[in-house]
Structures are given as structure tokens and as C-alpha cells.
Design brief:
This protein has about 210 residues and is α+β, with helices and mostly antiparallel strands. It is about 15% helix and about 35% strand. The strands form 3 sheets. Strands 1, 5, 7, 10 and 12 form a 5-stranded antiparallel β-sheet that branches. A 5-stranded antiparallel β-sheet has the order 2-6-11-8-9, with no helix packed on it. Strand 3 and strand 4 form a beta hairpin. The termini are far apart.
């Protein structure tokens, strides 16, 4: 009777199997490193970046202490109602007024009637202003059907003259550069001896 001999793998075969297993594992790691396999969480965490939202910054030029504003600035204007006239025939009313249905807060008003048909006010300009502007007309509470002649003189020279009826108005803009005196005059030419007529210069303004 033959003795049975236990079959087993030879050492050479075992070494071949181990080498094949190592080769397979190495192939898997190589594929993963090249992106051919499942992603590596650690690598993904290293490659994720976050872009912060854009921020807009606005800068302004700091103001210079003591710097003068430009001549065109409204702060360079001067209402005639803020100045005292050098001379006037019967005083000046500087209250607000309505001219042809429009209200004016800064107004110079002169009064004339048959007894005193001419009224004027003269101002010192000091040779520093460039223009004089105003809306001219009878104040709306003047008697019905009245009219006045409005005149502007600069250093004794008449630069504007216009007859204006109640319910009308005119906008004027007169150059006064290097002028020393500005004179405003109204003249009533009617025969109504019982009523006064009010000639207003709405928002009368001097500008550099």
C-alpha cells in the first residue's frame, strides 16, 4: 500500500503569487494617483479654493482748509435785499412778494403813486460784482390796470428801461463788472392819486 504524500505549493509558486499581488496593488495606487480611480479626499481638500466677494472702495479727496469756493458757487451770490441802500427816495421794502403769480422770498420793492411818481434806491457795488439779475414786475397786490416804468442804471448810465403792466413780469440779467453804483428806479405815469403801486425786483441778486 502506497503512502499518500500531502500536496503543497512549492516556494517558487508562493513567491510568484506574492509578486503578482504586489504588482496588482501598485497598479491600483498608480491609477488613483493619475485620476483614473476614486478621488482621494485628502487631495481634494488640498485643491479646493474659495474666492472672497469683491469689495468696492470709494475715496474722496480731502478738502483743503481755507480753500475758496469757485466763483460760480451759489455761496458767492448776494441778494440785494441783504444790503442797505446808500440812498433811497422813500425807503425799501425787503419782504417777500408775489409777481405775476410767482412768489419771491428775496425781494426789493419800491412804492410810487401820483403824488410821488418816482421812487429809487441806489447801492454800492464796490467794483467786485459781475452781474445783476432779477425778475421785475408789479407786486400782485398793486391796483388793477396799473403800470410802471422800471429802470436800471449803472454808474449813472441807464442800462435797462421797460414799462410793465400788472400781471406781467420780465427777467433781466445786467453786466455790472467793475461798477461802483447800481440804481433801481420805478416811475408811475398814471393819474390815480388815491392808490400806491408797488414795483418789485424779485430775487434781485448780485453775482461774482
Amino acid at each position: 500500500m502506497r503512502k499518500s504524500r500531502k500536496q503543497g505549493r512549492s516556494p517558487v509558486r508562493r513567491l510568484s503569487a506574492v509578486a503578482a499581488w504586489i504588482t496588482a496593488i501598485a497598479a491600483l495606487f498608480t491609477a488613483a494617483a493619475c485620476g483614473g480611480g476614486q478621488s482621494n479626499p485628502a487631495q481634494d481638500a488640498r485643491t479646493i479654493t474659495t474666492t472672497p466677494p469683491a469689495v468696492t472702495v470709494t475715496e474722496s479727496q480731502p478738502s483743503v482748509p481755507g480753500e475758496l469756493e469757485s466763483p460760480s458757487s451759489a455761496s458767492q451770490d448776494r441778494y440785494l435785499s441783504e444790503l442797505e441802500p446808500l440812498t433811497s427816495s422813500a425807503g425799501v421794502d425787503t419782504n417777500s412778494a408775489e409777481i405775476n403769480g410767482r412768489g419771491f422770498a428775496q425781494t426789493v420793492t419800491l412804492t410810487a403813486n401820483a403824488a410821488g411818481p418816482v421812487s429809487f434806491a441806489e447801492y454800492n457795488l464796490g467794483r467786485k460784482w459781475r452781474t445783476f439779475s432779477a425778475t421785475v414786475g408789479l407786486r400782485d397786490d398793486s391796483p388793477t390796470s396799473g403800470s410802471l416804468n422800471f429802470e436800471v442804471s449803472v454808474d449813472g448810465r441807464q442800462t435797462y428801461k421797460k414799462e410793465i403792466l400788472l400781471g406781467e413780469s420780465r427777467s433781466i440779467n445786467i453786466g455790472v463788472e467793475n461798477a461802483l453804483r447800481l440804481k433801481l428806479t420805478i416811475t408811475y405815469t398814471g393819474q390815480d392819486s388815491g392808490n400806491s403801486y408797488y414795483g418789485s425786483w424779485g430775487d434781485a441778486k448780485l453775482r461774482l
